[in-house]
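Q: Okay, next protein. This is Ribosome biogenesis protein NOP53 from Knipowitschia caucasica. I've checked the sequence twice, so it should be correct. Can you predict the 3D structure?
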Amino acid sequence: MATTRKPKRVAASQPGFLTLKSNINPTDLYSSKRKRMNKNKKKNWNKHCDINDVEEFLDDIRLQERTTGGLIADKPDDSLFFLDIGQPRKSEEKELEEGKKKKAKGSRPLRIDLILKHDSLVLPPKDILSFQQPNAKKLRRSAHLAAKAAVPRRQRLSRRLEPTTTKKAEANNNPHRDYYDIWGQAIEETADPWFLQQTKKTQIKRPEKLNTKPSELPAVEVIAAGGSYNPDFYAHQLLLKEAHEIEVLKQKEEQKVERQLAYNRADAATEETIFQEQVQGLVEDEDLNSDGDEEEEGAVGAIAVAQKKTERQRKRERFEKVKEQRRLAQKVAMEKRQQLFQLRTIKTSIKNQDDKTKVKQVKRKEKQEAQKALPRRLGRLKFQPQDLEVQLSDELAGSLRRLKPEGSVLKDRFKSLQKRNLIEPRERAKFKRRHKVKYVEKRAFREIS
């Protein structure tokens, strides 16, 4: 005999569930006959699966939530039932009726309010955006740091800035507003400095080093009084002397290079020395061989003479070593004790050393100040000063009409830029031929030759 299959139970048919709709019978939710279909295919899910019982169950739950504010099964008995104590007396009925009439007259809502009133007891969903705060994570972190008595880095930086007071904007039609001068000073920005910097409304703070000039020399140097077209005699002679000293220094440098490159003629190679270099290693020298044998014999004899030290000698050496170490330690301790009686001398030496250090600092500063007016080494080449433009006594013109121009303005400006450390010293680029020159002899010349 085949076993009877138990009907499938849905959530509404379980014990303890109360239905609010009267037309729904829990017994109707039982499935009497099983439908045969293939449920592992998607096309049969909506075609053969009956979900009416689930939808009715969910509709009933929604209805209970709207009308009663929750499931009836979860409600307490006091909210669902009341105690019947019989009919009230006439006097009590009159008081209740009068109270209801007064209350109804005083607090009767309008029809429009009843229509617009929300009739569902279901609580509205929580709006997440209303609970969110801007920069909540940063605020929590700052509160956590404040509890630890620690201040964030950005807050420390903002404290250094001067507090700015924001001024409320006034309407343009206000007759009592302040007079605004369009040619006056610019109004200071009151926004966050970091925000203004990121939005390119304010420039980045310029380093102080960029405000200092690379050299203290003027852009245009005025030549000495002796360089005029009609100079004073003594001023012209001083300029000639300066030019003479420059030429003497150049001549000394050339002579120094010549001396370094010169060689002694006595050390020059002769025919005999050249011959000895050529035959060196080809002729056997008997004297050298004999000297080598003597050295080998001496080395062997030295090795044979060396003997092993005895235990007594080793103990003696250790004793002498320990004795010497003790003597040095006693000497150091004695020197430290003697230094107590040399405090005046030590203080005097320290004072003299401090005075020498101060003098060196002053000299170093003076040297640094003097180097500000000198050209620095900016590149591969050293700065070569321009030749001094001076005329001899017999070349002086005496007037501007007969004055001969000297030098070049362009070269003078180029050297001035190098001297003021604005550009590095450069040399003229040399022309390098990419291809070799090919000489071709013409036919007419070849016939003649």
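A: Here is a summary of the prediction. DSSP finds 17 helices and no strands in the chain. Residues 233-261 form the longest helix (29 residues).
Q: Noted. On to the next one.
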